[in-house]
């Protein structure tokens, strides 16, 4: 059939497949342009399937007699409409199902989808859920963290196609390990008062993880979360005391935004000292006036480019140091004890930005 496959990393850990069910030519075109070429048709729409096959490379499948069939009328999947617990209970991988299982959840969605994910874990079968909106597709792809194996986007509008592709691309970015480098601290000094931003995430961070933040987009420092225990204050593993309102922070899609622009529901990327990344949702942002400290660093002794960040001057605010040879554990250096010559982790990238997107243009920032 040649269905398009989009791979995920992290908790997804498996391929996600997308099939399209539509009678709208613009939807078909948008899907094909985004690499999705498996289309579902009712048995009464064979003429439409033939017409589209003549203008685009597609793999048509047909829904009929409680199953999914290819153009040679070979059964390639089973179809189940589920509207009550009894029907859901019958959906088990050992019950002689085909390799592809299509479910139409007519009533509840979240709990049935989670039950299906649990029942089919470890199975070689792919379960698709029929989704009439992007939100439904996202729900099915994230059910019980791992998600179903695929979705069938049944729409007559191109917008859900665009939204789903953008969503999958963001998730696919998590496969890529960010390139991080070592930088040597060249300046540490008090900078006076300023408005700093605490970012509280809907995610627990582990030692070595934090957010990429910097005064300039050309160089973002890995600011450690407050996940470490101390004698004076309880750990807050969901929090990064990230820096002042003007600073850039890395967000999905290889973009940046200002810390002042973050708000509940927005996504950022959590990164560890090896460059492993994952998306996280912002739950709350706190802006308060605090004493700040200026930190500057450069990649080596002959480098001309300096990178800088301002942070709250407190023992709970730390930068991530690079791992030493033979030691995989990252060290968090509190800014209150940071000194010239210390090595920290840095993300070096293009400095010119337009609405957070990297562009090619001449720029000087000091």
Automatic annotation (TrEMBL):
UniProt domain 3-dehydroquinate synthase N-terminal: residue ranges: 16-167
Residue span(s) of domain 3-dehydroquinate synthase C-terminal: 183-366
Matches recorded under InterPro entries: DHQS (IPR002812), DHQS/DOIS_N (IPR030960), DHQS_C (IPR056179)
Keywords for the protein's UniProt record, in alphabetical order: Amino-acid biosynthesis, Aromatic amino acid biosynthesis
Pfam families to which the protein is assigned, alphabetical: DHQS (PF01959), DHQS_2nd (PF26558)
GO biological process: amino acid biosynthetic process; aromatic amino acid family biosynthetic process
Keyword Phosphoprotein (UniProt): no
MF GO annotations: 3-dehydroquinate synthase activity; oxidoreductase activity
Name of the protein described by the UniProt record: 3-dehydroquinate synthase
Organism listed in the record: Cannabis sativa
């Amino acid at each position: 059939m040649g269905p398009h496959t989009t791979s995920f990393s992290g908790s997804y850990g498996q391929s996600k497949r997308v099939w399209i069910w539509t009678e709208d030519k613009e939807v078909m075109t948008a899907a094909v342009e985004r690499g999705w070429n498996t289309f579902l048709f009712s048995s009464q729409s064979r003429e439409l399937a033939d017409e589209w096959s003549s203008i685009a490379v597609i793999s048509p499948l047909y829904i009929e007699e409680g199953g999914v069939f290819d153009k040679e009328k070979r059964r390639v999947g089973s179809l189940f409409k589920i509207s009550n617990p009894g029907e859901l209970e019958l959906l088990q991988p050992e019950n002689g199902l085909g390799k592809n299982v299509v479910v139409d959840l007519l009533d509840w969605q979240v709990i049935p989808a989670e039950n299906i994910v649990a029942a089919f874990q470890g199975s070689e079968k792919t379960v698709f859920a029929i989704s009439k909106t992007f939100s439904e597709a996202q729900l099915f792809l994230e059910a019980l963290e791992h998600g179903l194996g695929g979705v069938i986007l049944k729409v007559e509008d191109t917008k859900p196609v665009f939204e789903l592709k953008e969503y999958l691309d963001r998730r696919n970015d998590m496969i890529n390990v960010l390139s991080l480098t070592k930088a040597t601290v060249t300046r540490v000094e008090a900078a006076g008062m300023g408005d700093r931003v605490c970012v509280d995430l809907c995610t627990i961070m582990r030692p070595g993880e934090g957010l990429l933040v910097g005064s300039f987009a050309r160089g973002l420092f890995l600011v450690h979360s407050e996940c470490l225990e101390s004698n004076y204050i309880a750990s807050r593993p969901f929090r990064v005391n990230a820096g002042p309102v003007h600073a850039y922070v890395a967000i999905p899609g290889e973009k940046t935004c200002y810390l002042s622009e973050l708000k509940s529901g927005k996504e950022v990327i959590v990164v560890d000292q090896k460059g492993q990344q994952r998306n996280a949702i912002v739950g709350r942002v706190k802006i308060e006036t605090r004493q700040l400290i200026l930190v500057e660093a450069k990649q080596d002794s002959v480098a001309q480019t300096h990178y800088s960040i301002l942070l709250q001057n407190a023992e709970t605010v730390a930068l991530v140091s690079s791992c030493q040879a033979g030691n995989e554990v990252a060290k968090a250096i509190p800014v209150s004890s940071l000194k010239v010559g210390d090595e920290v982790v840095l993300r070096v990238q293009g400095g010119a930005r337009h609405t957070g997107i990297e562009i090619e243009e001449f720029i000087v920032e000091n």
